[in-house]
Amino acid sequence: MKLSTYEPDALPPGVRRLSYGLFCWLNRHTTVLRAFGALLRHWPSVGGRLGLAARASAVRDVLTRTRSFSNTAHAANMVSGDYLIGMDPGPTYSADRDLVHARLAALDVPADSDAEAQQRIKALSGRGVGAFDLIDDYLMWVVFHAMRPLFGAATGAVVAGSATASAQGDVDEGLQRQYMLEIRYVAGQLLAGSLATLDLRRRAEACGDALQARIDRVSGPIGAAWGVKSASEDIERNAVGLAWISHPVTVQSGALIVQELLGRAKVYEELRSKAGRLGEPGVWTDPEFRKIVRNHVLELMRFRPIFPLLARDVPRDTEMKTGARYNAGCPGGGKVSLLSIAALFDPSAVPQSGRFCPDRDWGKNDALRYLMFGYGTRQCPARDHAVEILTSALIGLLTLPRLQLARGEGKAIAYDGPLMLRMRMRTT
Amino acid sequence: MLEIVRQQMICIVAPGWGGGAEIPKQLHDALDALLEDVAVVHFASIGLLPALAGAPNQQPVLVLELAVEEGLRPYDLLYRLVYHPDGAMWTLFGAMVAPHVAVPTAKDKEQLLNQLMSWHSIAAGGFVGARDRSVRQIKMESDLLDQTRIEARKLKPKYSNDRTAFALALARWAYANPRFEWAVKPAPRSYWRGKGASIGAKLAYPVAAIVLWFVVLGIVWALPRAYNWFFGEPGHVGRAIEDAVTKTSECLLTMSWHGLLAFALIAFLVWLFLVPLPAQFVSWRRWLNSVQQELDRPTQTLSSLATYAGGWLIGVPLLLAVAACALAYTVAPLAYAVAPDYMINVVEPKLPKLTGLQIVGIAVVAIAAVLCIGALFYRLNRRFKKLSEQFFHPLEDDVPRAQQIHPSIERCEADLVDGTQHMFSLTELRGPPWWSAWCIRAALRIVTFAGRVFFTQGWLGNAPGIHFGHWHIIDNGRRFLFCSNYDGNFGGYLDDFINGAAVGTTLAWRWTELRPRAPALPEQPGIAKPRSFPPTRFVVFRGVKCELRFKSYARDSMLPHLYHFDACNRTVDQINLATGLRDALFGERNEKNDDLIMRVIET
Predict the structure, then answer these.
(1) Residue of A2, A3, A5 to mutate when probing chain B, most B C-beta within 10 A
(2) According to its UniProt record, which protein family does this protein belong to (chain A) (predicted)?
(3) A202 and B140: CB-CB below 8 Å?
(4) Which of B54, B224, B228, B294 is in Cβ range 3.0-4.6 Å of B307 for a Cys bridge?
(5) Measured between CB atoms, which of A6, A175, A207 is closest to B71?
């Protein structure tokens, strides 16, 4: 089990706060990143010198050469221990991946996500209150309930952090909320990366320690629920990883796509009117409408990917195809950065890349459509599940009266570094 | 930058303690288990403060002191403690938040967390001795130290006095031991202990700020010109704006230069008086020492009174005059810009016209005069010995009574005799509390800054052995709480402060006093006789130098602890030694590292 032994900040005071502030600002203003990406696509050799890949072909190339460009770049930011996403291929990686696939097969999406979304929407409508928090009152729960089968019968024990009889079944909602906050900060560190300020990193480490301690106490019930006889440390590693990576990233993605959708009033109105025409329960059962919403989800994610920037370790000297006349040299021991948002807007791979077009024909580049989930063999195994959950969540929101950000009560969106902490919405 | 230090030392001041003067054994063990498990708390202590006079609730106030690793925000720490499944925090504080709730729900815990956040106080100032080290790191490095010593004993007969071969053998052993794989990476160091340890790096910040200021002024000055060059001659409004910007920026630029020059000159004079002159002239050195000695003299004598009076009559006016000159020189460009005629026709004729040579001549004569006066007094002292003895004879007794230590305090000290000692001290703020609180906060920020940036090797000034020392202004600025975890014993600890960090300690405590107070509980100490902190001179002199009075004051202000947790139980020296050994064993093989390894295993 990984123990957090903190490292003090070796940068001069002020420098980290400045660089982290800039990083968060860029994450929130993806237009700037896209403009920067466009420049690098135009002059790929400049990007090569900076260790940056921006063209779709270059990003794809780096993501498929997993031996030359390693995922271990994530490891330093995984405060609760090693997991698939930060591992190099090997026996542990393969075994863990098989386990994850088995766990994902247990999910019943979109049925579960639809059911929870309907229930939450009903509660929000019945409450009669115009304002609500998209993350805390809606998305967090839709994703949580859709992913319950990941831990199966042990979900209650994981949430309560206890294997006692009182922790079986549905546990107190307050405890569930606390659990989800805990894993949010652990995932937040993966987003914030090595630039994160010391206090943010320490918070993530404290939550990572708590998550490990929680899983450690219930590794028995988890093993039983999974029906595996692996060593306790294997169960712990996978349980911890599954806990923090699945939920918060999907919730953040959901918040980002809603933010993007609300910024596109015409698209939103069009979808709402379609939902209105179908009415209840047609919106949930009509396959054509679901497909339209799903396409919208993917297109919205293209504009607001949760990881607009990715990093990869370079274990040994190699070259990177940037699209320039000459390949860029990558010295071993260094890192390269991938502007995935620039690749998603590369006009040579994406027709009419600047336009919001959910029905775009991607042709032979269809795989690129899912670049926000990674690419090739290291792509997120829960890709389709995540899209389905977000589709359910969005359908639910489309059945509500017109939504807008609740700007009148302070800031509608509260950020915590690159993470969205709150998103106050109001029905009009 | 200072907040990161202040947040490391938290006190939760919770009114309405309904328990007794002892923590039940079960809770004691639960707290130990909780803090061990969380593994970010270096020290924790619980004490009881008497209720504030006039407070509606006259039950004792429970204080939980937490000294934690760097970078953790109080909310995150308390969140981790409150939501820990063992529930020790609820057992301790639950009755004060929601009585009669044995098994708290998530809502109860949230209520407790919110209450603890409202009760918590981060340090107004503090010092951390063993910086940049986590609890786990200290434990792992201590293990490395212990194992290395065991291995060294085994290898000693083989290598005897061959230090290089001995150190090499130990390094090989450490490298080959998979248990110490973590130590291959050098011990992490924060900026001020690593790359920023040099004076140059420390000076870089003010220099960069000054340069940036001048660059900004230059840009502002150049902007209208660049605009004119780009777009052609401006109209009336444009010209007016250009004039205003030019005049303002030129005035600010000149004022900045003047201010910088004045500051440089004052810095040079201070350096001249304190460094080269004492080094060159014995009488100057003797005079400087005697002034400091007299100002710090713990007992009242004619000599100290005369020095004090001399300070007021000569020193203070002289310093004020220098400051006024520097200020006038700095703001002169502004006066010339606002009222040029008045300055030229009225002020300038009144200013003495001195050449540089004349000014230097006056300075030399002044220095010579001080030297002569110093020499004269020295001779007079030796010539008239009887008069001199009377002059230096104490006019008062030091401490009028024998010191009585409350048994509870003695018991606490005895409990910790083999480990890190702990101290709670509670005093009241004197005079208008808002003024005292402001002064204390300002002084403590200076102490904290100095500790953070300059005293990075475990010593505060010349005072060693402090793990975590911190001050809190509590009860809306009416009371002052000092908590410390230190090595050695109480007397030695205060001696270190008196001799090693007198100015900082005097600054921290000079605005406090002891008022009569009833004990928190019958078994606890109270205060019968009111007293002030020993008198100070010119804010920073004397004070703690009144050794017996200061020790008596500190002793009487102390409160016993009911619970104490020490995660590592190592002295600051041992911690530093273990970190040094790690770096030396896994660093490059050279004389310095070999010597360090040998010293560590021989210590």
Answers:
(1) A5
(2) Belongs to the cytochrome P450 family.
(3) no
(4) B294
(5) A6
A120 CB-side CA count, 13 A: 28
C-alpha distance from A3 to closest chain B C-alpha (Å): 8
Q: What is the b/e burial string over A94-115, where b = at least 16 CB atoms within 10 angstroms of the residue's CB? A: eebbebbeebbeebebbebbbb
The two tokens of residue B255 are 């004022």
Chain A residues with beta carbon closer than 8 angstroms to that of B89: none
What chain A residue is nearest to B7 in terms of C-alpha separation?
A199
Burial grade of A409 (CB within 10 A; 0-12, 13-18, 19 or more): exposed
Q: Which residue from B526, B52, B539 is spatially nearest to B315, judged by alpha carbons?
A: B539
Contact A12 B196 (CB under 8 A): yes
CB B517 within 8 A of CB B53: yes
**DSSP code, position A264:** -
Q: Does B110 touch chain A (CB under 8 A)?
A: yes
Could you identify the residue written with the tokens 């393969």?
Answer: A94
Bridge partners of residue B532, in order along the sequence? B513
A405 vs B410: CA distance, rounded Å: 63
A202 to chain B, any CB pair closer than 8 A? The answer is yes
Distance separating alpha carbons of residues A348 and A59, to the nearest angstrom: 13
From the list B123, B122, B96, B121, the residue with the least C-alpha distance to B111 is B96
pLDDT of residue A1: 46
Looking up tokens 């002052």, which residue turns up? B480
For chain A, the straight-line distance linking the first and the last C-alpha, in angstroms and rounded, comes to 50
User: Can you state the angle between helices A198-217 and A232-262, rounded to 10 degrees?
Assistant: 130
Whether the CB of B134 is below 8 Å from some CB of chain A: the reply is yes
Structure tokens at A35: 């403009």
Is-contact B105 B50, C-beta < 8 A?
no
CA B202, CA B196: separation in Å to the nearest integer? 6
A173 interaction partners in chain B (CB closer than 8 Å): 106
pLDDT of residue A128: 67
How far apart, in whole angstroms, are the C-alpha atoms of residue B397 and residue B394? 8
What is the distance in angstroms between the Cα of B472 and the nearest Cα belonging to chain A?
22
Q: Provide the number of CB pairs (under 8 Å) joining chain A to chain B.
A: 93
| Residue B479: pLDDT band with limits 50, 70, 90 | very high
Instruction: Compare CB distances from A202 to B38, B76, B84 and report the shortest one's residue.
Output: B76
Q: Rounded distance, CA B20 to CA B241, Å? A: 73
- The amino acid at residue B252 is L
Residue (of A52, A92, A56, A57) closest to A72 by Cα position: A92
DSSP string over B440-455: HHHHHHHHHHHHHHT-
Is residue A188 scored above 90 in pLDDT? no
The CA distances from residue A350 to A387, A396, B24, B278, in Å, are: 20, 30, 69, 78
DSSP H helical ranges for B394-501: 407-415, 433-453, 490-500
- Domain locations along chain B: 2-131+402-566, 134-186+570-603, 199-392
Contact (Cβ atoms closer than 8 angstroms) between residue B5 and residue B448:
yes
Q: Which residues in chain A are closer than 8 Å to B204, comparing Cβ atoms? A: 12
Question: What six digits make up the tokens of B518?
Answer: 């009833």
**pLDDT recorded at residue A169:** 67
Give how far A347 is from chain B: nearest CA, Å.
37
| pLDDT tens-digit readout, A357-370 | 998 888 888 888 99
Neighbours of A162 (CB within 10 A): 19
Residues pairing with A199 in the sheet: none
Which residues have CB under 8 Å from B3's CB, separation 6+? B122
| DSSP assigned state of B188 | P
Provide the 3-class DSSP secondary structure of residue B254: helix
Alpha carbon distance A385, A113 (integer Å) = 10
Nearest-CA distance from A143 to chain B in Å? 21
Domains of chain A by start residue, with CATH: 15-427 (1.10.630.10)
